[in-house]
Write a structure and sequence with these properties.
Number of strands: 8
Strand content: 35-45%
Structural class: alpha/beta
Helix content: 10-25%
Distance between the termini: 26 Å
Number of helices: 2
Radius of gyration: 11 Å
Length: 77
């Protein structure tokens, strides 16, 4: 986790690279992710538990690591 990252309560994060100025909403669960600078993760988002769903929403490697960018998050709305 880089500087300027804000993690709200009840978030569960493991095996993550989180670049600066990221905000992670309440009750988020993240596994095996790389989050680009300045991304705002909405409350309740789950990434890293369902490989099929992750591949539809984010760029996912064969090893199961998901890249999350703000445009990808914006498309979820």
């Amino acid at each position: 986790m880089f500087t300027g990252v804000r993690v709200h309560s009840y978030a569960d994060i493991a095996y993550a690279v989180i670049l600066p100025e990221v905000e992670i909403g309440q009750s988020v669960r993240l596994r095996n992710v790389i989050i680009e600078r300045g991304v705002h993760i909405p409350p309740g988002l789950v990434v890293g538990e369902d490989p099929v769903l992750d591949a539809k929403r984010f760029r996912r490697t064969q090893n199961g690591i998901c890249l999350i960018t703000q445009p990808m998050i914006d498309e979820l709305r």
